[in-house]
Design a protein that fits this description.
The chain is α/β, with parallel strands linked by helices. The relative contact order is 0.16. Helix 1 packs parallel to helix 4 and helix 8 packs antiparallel against helix 9. The radius of gyration is 22 Å and the shape is globular. It is built from twelve helices and 17 strands. A hairpin with a 3-residue loop joins strand 9 (185-192) and strand 10 (196-204).
Length: 418
């Protein structure tokens, strides 16, 4: 039986542990925190998961919240100048509802579940020497711990990483007080070019209650940056809400009193998007494979972080099981990442398009999506499958071709015009 060690018990690490144990491997999962410590820790990102990643989670039995998490049935996008009504609104249902569950709740539930299934679980903050020791007793060591882990072990890939500084400053809060109709409801994104974005999605909190996640992405130096603070978290939320009332006065949701779900419900920070080389080389010369956030760190605006981690983990899972008894050497590691990069490159491109100032052709796409349901559907499903909107959401000529094709289809659907 081949033995594999996984460092990091987040989305990617637990997915790999579950899948490999299911496939008959001897799996060791190492977390730097116990489940109780994870659950009591600071707020993470909201980590919305779309249909393909949800299907991957179901395939390894990690879909524990389907009956309780409020479904995200679609996406609504509004393009608006600050302090003015929206210029246009785009909305489409998702083919399969998405969901957003507190990552602390996921990891805290998954770790003991994996132990019950036969995964060896260790709670330890590892050093490079510890990693080296793991390579001596396992056929493969995978590092999925990103910002909390061994980022320096995986050098930045300058060719794949155009950003050297954060593109947004971030504020996130998990709140109650926003009324929603029963059943699947859309996630809402307000785009304010040159200012930033406000994202609001249904969310399942670590407290076991349905609520909302509010994410504010501020363009550095713009009217949203820096967001105000208060004497405590409740006062900070109130001050931020006042800012939203000013910048997004047309959205009645921000007129509603909001309450934080608990005392660890606010996250502030900034992320420099980065792609790293997937092979970590230890002082001894041994190699480890990076997966998820350890090699692809994404700004949350495009909601790709958890989706990318799951899909990358699932790709590596399949690559491992297809490799038989051959050695997991550096050649295999690089080839495995390169095969995933065909998808991952589209993820980074989609994120970069949303982070950059919109070009005239983007406004043409938005305008078409506001009036043509098929364009709205295609655009919204870029969040589900980024390659599906490229190159037409990234290049002016491709956008023109795509929009002309959609116009021809629309005209041909009307017999009198055809």
């Amino acid at each position: 039986m081949r033995s594999i060690a996984i460092v990091g018990a987040g989305v990617a690490g637990c997915h790999l542990a579950a899948g490999l144990q299911q496939a008959g491997y001897a799996v060791t999962l190492i977390s730097d925190r116990s489940p109780d410590d994870v659950l009591a820790g600071p707020a993470p990102g909201s980590a919305g998961v779309f249909g393909p990643a949800r299907a991957a989670e179901r395939s390894v039995g990690l879909n524990l919240w389907d009956a309780v998490c409020p479904p995200i049935g679609g996406i609504q996008m509004a393009v608006a100048p600050p302090s003015a009504p929206p210029l246009l609104t785009i909305q489409s249902d998702l083919d399969e509802p998405a969901q957003a569950v507190d990552l602390r709740l996921k990891s805290a539930a998954w770790i003991p579940l994996l132990r019950e299934r036969g995964v060896t679980v260790g709670i330890q903050a590892l050093t490079l020497d510890d990693l080296d020791a793991l390579t001596q007793i396992h056929d493969l060591v995978i590092v999925t711990a990103g910002r909390r882990g061994f980022g320096e072990l995986f050098p930045r890939d300058a060719e794949k990483s155009p950003h050297t500084a954060p593109q947004r400053t971030l504020f996130q809060a998990f709140v109650t007080g926003l009324a929603e109709p029963m059943g699947p409801t859309p996630g809402r994104i307000t785009l304010m070019p040159g200012v930033g974005e406000v994202v609001c999605v249904p969310f399942y909190a670590r407290t076991g209650q349905a609520c909302h996640s509010i994410l504010i992405e501020a363009v550095p130096g713009g009217p949203l940056d820096p967001l105000p603070t208060g004497a405590d978290d409740a006062a900070t939320l109130s001050a931020v809400q006042q800012t939203l009332k000013t910048l997004v006065p047309w959205d009645e949701n921000w007129q509603t009193p909001l309450t934080l779900v608990d005392n660890q419900a606010i996250l502030r920070g900034a992320i420099t998007p980065c792609v790293r080389h997937p092979i970590g080389r230890l002082p001894s010369g041994a190699t480890v494979l990076g997966v998820g956030d350890s090699v692809m760190l994404l700004d949350p605006l495009a909601a790709q972080g958890a989706n990318n981690a799951v899909r990358m983990a699932h790709h590596v899972l399949r690559a491992i099981t297809a490799h038989g008894m051959a050695p997991f050497d550096a050649t295999w590691m690089q080839a495995t990442f390169d095969a995933y990069w065909a998808y991952g490159q589209a993820v980074t491109q989609f994120c970069d398009v949303l982070l950059a100032p919109p070009q005239p052709f983007h406004l043409e796409v938005f305008a078409a999506a506001a009036h043509q349901p098929q364009v709205a559907h295609d655009l919204v499903h870029g969040f589900v499958d980024p390659p599906s909107v490229l190159p037409w959401f990234g290049e002016a000529s491709a956008a023109a071709t795509y929009l002309n094709q959609q116009l021809e289809r629309q005209c041909c659907s009307i017999p009198a015009i055809c």
